[in-house]
Amino acid sequence: MPHTAFWRTPLVRAPRDLRPWLSERGSLTRRLISHFPQFSVRVLRQGFYPPHQDERAILGLTNALVATREVLLCSAGQAVIYAHSITQRGSLKRGFHLFGRTGSRPLGALLFADPTIKRSALAWRQLNRRHPLWQQAVAAAGPQARTLWARRSIFYAGQDQLLVTEVFLSPPFHSAP
Ligand SMILES: C=C(O[C@@H]1C=C(C(=O)O)C=C[C@H]1O)C(=O)O
């Protein structure tokens, strides 16, 4: 299943101010650093967890646990993005060997520093409270708008794939709940 399955909401539906963020093909981390003061990465969890159902279909996974990294990207201590990234266990020994050792450095800085790593097209959707990513964002960052814009794409290092999903939080990207 392509990563765009169920993630086909046209960008014109997004608030105008949010569109440049949703469509940024360069590093989102870099864009955040240039727009928001005191950028930091708060690692929520990094380890082996079951993938979400749609992630399993996208990466052709079995029920096995996948290497998972969940972070809040913050400005002055305020969460602005919830990011959820997964890759297969074997990829930690190959294309994404740095994934397990990223720590509180932004993953984007590593991905975009390597010219051999390629990125797929971006895909977008609005998440509501039934979606596990909306629930995880709320659990990590506190009350949120009823729907949140999110985007996802796959990074490729040879045969290895890393699926990165970024959820834009409120504030500053959405009005209050
Ligand atoms: C993919 C990027 O990396 C960002 C940083 C992440 C992290 O540190 O885990 C995760 C997703 C992104 O928001 C990027 O900067 O575009």
Domain count, please report it. 1
- Total of helices: 5
Radius of gyration: 15 Å
Given helix and strand content, the structural type is alpha+beta
- The name of the CATH topology is Chorismate lyase
Task: Give the strand content.
Answer: 25-35%
Regarding CATH, which class? Alpha Beta
- The CATH architecture would be 3-Layer(aba) Sandwich
Biggest β-sheet description? 7 strands, antiparallel
What is the string of helix and strand elements? Answer: HHEHEEHEEHEE
Mean pLDDT: 92
Q: State the CATH superfamily name.
A: Chorismate lyase-like
Shape: globular
**Got a strand count?**
7
Ligand species:
the ligand C=C(O[C@@H]1C=C(C(=O)O)C=C[C@H]1O)C(=O)O
The helicity comes to 10-25%
Terminal Cα separation, in Å? 33 Å
Enzyme class: lyase
Subcellular location: Cytoplasm
Keywords: Cytoplasm, Lyase, Pyruvate, Ubiquinone biosynthesis
Organism: Chitinibacter bivalviorum
Tell me what the structure shows:
This protein is of the alpha+beta class. The chain has a single domain, classed as Chorismate lyase-like (Chorismate lyase, 3-Layer(aba) Sandwich). 19% of the residues lie in helices and 32% in strands. The chain is built from five helices and seven strands; from the N terminus they run H-H-E-H-E-E-H-E-E-H-E-E. It has helices spanning 19-22, 28-35, 53-59, 107-111, 132-141, and strands at residues 39-49, 66-75, 78-87, 118-119, 123-127, 148-157, 160-168. Strands 1, 2, 3, 4, 5, 6 and 7 form a seven-stranded antiparallel β-sheet that branches. Strand 6 and strand 7 form a beta hairpin. The protein starts with 18 loop residues before the first helix and ends in a 9-residue tail after the last strand. Bound molecules: the ligand C=C(O[C@@H]1C=C(C(=O)O)C=C[C@H]1O)C(=O)O. The ligand C=C(O[C@@H]1C=C(C(=O)O)C=C[C@H]1O)C(=O)O binds at residues 27-29, 41, 69, 71, 73, 81, 83, 85, 106-108, 111, 164, 166.
